[in-house]
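Figure 3 (text version): structure tokens given as input.
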């Protein structure tokens, strides 16, 4: 060690001492040893990885400032973690260079920095000599684009808390479970992306259980299981998607069990998704299932109408497409249990509209939805219309067939006929017969009467529109 190095560090310490309380100083700064001063880069040795992470998390600004004070604006700090000195909180994890704020000077050996070529890992980025884990995340999956609703509140909030403090909340592991298409992958990746955004130095890794399994098969084949395990032990936030896939895969489960234990013990974050609750996972070892239950299992439910509308609205905005509120509501009303399907409808709708140069109106929406939802092909029946109108006026449906001339009954009857004419393909004759055996001219007369009333009475017009919508929207019931 050269003298300058010690002097520079001593000066830094004087600045630091003025800015932290004595206890913190004693705990976190006295154990540090300066080891090398190379130009404007000062290398300090810290006892272990945990120590390093703590410094980075709590004192990074102070360290930066004090180093720059001594070495100028370009002054930088590099941490050295002695090999084989990981303490109890980081059992076997090798030191991780991706964590060191020394990303430049790639080809120079830096003390204690791990060389990528020493380890075979499945995600190495070619061309980068210094080890860096490619997170495999899709950056489109963010919290911003993950709409909150009652259906996902717990899972989403837990995710936000984890992203702020990975590995340090009670939610470890976090198991997100729920049916297909409800946003498990999106949410799990949103956590990963947010961690990556907040903590540049943390290694995040997203992997599907299927890929994970295939990697293990390869590792076994190549006699490289240890490398595989070591690689995974370097990850700070491990996301494994669709763990139900591990079912029945004994060897994979065994290796995963070890990785899980290592990561969990050293305070790294584990996030898993599954198509069912951990307790219902079949073909997975009990010891794994019991660990899945250590943290939080949060389910995603099918979103309610309002949430579906908010989701679709957001997606449309992203695509810069405008849709009338009516059509939006219609789509969301009919696509009830799956967000992926909702997106499917949207994509088809956009495609249709562009291909045949048609506006996206209710008719087009209906056509498209028909191809997604079988039940929609259900015809609107005269009986259904009569029931809806009778319910609205709070009268018995049979009143629409009777001879009574009581004004409210007459209006209800005429309105029901008008809607039958407009919304079904039935003939005037059939419609007339369905209203207590009236003839077709009565239906014509009724339709005119309703039109007149609509022209003169706004409230009535609204009622007609409301009923019409209700009938359309109820197609799926
Ligand atoms: P899963 O993994 O549960 O099968 P995904 O995460 O793949 O579901 O979600 C399916 C689609 O629905 C994705 O495109 C996702 O962006 C979208 N999605 C699901 N839930 C939401 C939500 N709450 N807000 C916005 N988009 C969502
Ligand atoms: Mg998924």
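Below: residues designed for each position.
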């Amino acid at each position: 060690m050269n003298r300058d190095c010690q002097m520079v560090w001593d000066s830094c310490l004087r600045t630091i001492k003025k800015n932290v309380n004595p206890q913190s100083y004693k705990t976190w700064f006295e154990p540090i040893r300066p080891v090398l001063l190379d130009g404007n880069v000062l290398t300090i040795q810290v006892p272990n990885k945990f120590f390093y992470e703590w410094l980075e998390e709590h004192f990074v600004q102070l360290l930066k400032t004090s180093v720059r004070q001594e070495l100028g604006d370009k002054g930088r700090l590099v941490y050295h973690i002695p090999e084989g000195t990981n303490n109890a909180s980081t059992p076997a994890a090798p030191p991780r260079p991706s964590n060191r704020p020394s990303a430049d000077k790639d080809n120079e050996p830096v003390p204690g920095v791990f060389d990528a070529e020493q380890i075979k890992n499945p995600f190495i980025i070619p061309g980068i000599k210094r080890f860096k884990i490619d997170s495999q995340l899709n950056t489109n999956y963010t919290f911003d684009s993950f709409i909150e609703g009652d259906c996902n509140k717990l899972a989403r909030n837990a995710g936000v808390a984890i992203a702020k403090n990975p590995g340090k909340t009670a939610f470890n592991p976090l198991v997100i479970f729920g049916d297909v298409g409800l946003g498990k992958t999106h949410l799990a990746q949103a956590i990963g992306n947010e961690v990556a955004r907040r903590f540049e130095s943390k290694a995040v890794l997203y992997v599907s259980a299927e890929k994970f399994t295939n990697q293990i098969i390869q590792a076994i084949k190549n006699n490289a299981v240890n490398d595989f395990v070591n690689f995974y032990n370097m990850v700070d936030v491990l996301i494994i998607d669709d763990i139900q896939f591990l079912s029945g895969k004994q060897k994979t489960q065994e290796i995963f069990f070890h990785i899980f234990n290592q990561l969990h013990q050293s305070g790294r974050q584990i996030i898993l998704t599954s198509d069912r609750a951990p307790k219902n996972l079949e073909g997975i070892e009990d010891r794994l299932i019991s660990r899945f239950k250590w943290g939080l299992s949060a389910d995603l439910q099918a979103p309610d109408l309002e949430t579906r509308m908010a989701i679709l609205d957001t997606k449309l905005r992203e695509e810069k497409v405008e849709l009338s509120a009516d059509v939006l509501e219609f789509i969301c009303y009919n696509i009830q249990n799956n967000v992926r399907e909702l997106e499917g409808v949207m994509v088809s709708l956009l495609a249709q509209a562009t291909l045949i140069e048609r506006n996206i109106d209710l008719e087009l929406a209906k056509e498209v939805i028909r191809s997604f939802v079988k039940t929609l092909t259900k015809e609107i029946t005269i009986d259904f219309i009569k029931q809806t109108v009778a319910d609205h006026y709070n009268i018995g449906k049979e009143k629409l067939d009777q001879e009574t001339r009581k004004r409210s009954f007459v209006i209800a009857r005429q309105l029901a006929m008008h809607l039958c004419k407009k919304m079904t393909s039935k003939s005037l004759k059939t419609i007339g017969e369905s209203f207590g055996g009236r003839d077709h001219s009565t239906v014509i007369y009724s339709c005119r009467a309703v039109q007149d009333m609509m022209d003169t009475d706004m409230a009535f017009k609204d009622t007609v529109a409301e009923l019409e919508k209700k009938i359309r929207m109820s197609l799926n019931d």
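The beta strands are 33-38, 41-45, 76-80, 174-177, 204-208, 237-241, 269-274, 296-299.
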